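Subgroup meeting minutes
Present: P.N., E.W., G.H.
Scribe: E.W.

1. P.N. recapped why we're keeping a running log of single-chain structure predictions: easier to compare across weeks, and new members can see raw inputs and outputs side by side.
2. G.H. added today's entry (114 aa).
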Amino acid sequence: MSFLLHWAIVAAALWLAAYLIPGVVVRSVPALLIAAFVLGLVNALVRPVLTILTLPITILTLGLFYLVVNGAAFALAAALVPGFDLAGFGSAVLGALLVSLVSWVLGGMLSPKR
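Output recorded in log:
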């Protein structure tokens, strides 16, 4: 149940990013659902490896390079899912930032209290 709730939250955040950011395009509902699933997989499997590999430059930039890592993970998910397109890397960074913020807020409001 928790997985489905998290998947729905990421899908809603991705839909909002596609609505608000001009360079993020999701062409259909199935593409949105697949993109939310792939984005969750990329964030769980690839982003931790990228974070560790780029840790020195992230420290040197006082954490700002982490935005680039998030944008790269977002762009990778867009490259893997047909129907989920980005206009450029700036759109990827903004989209990743918005999806992260919306997921955090919705997850805090909708997740069951422990």
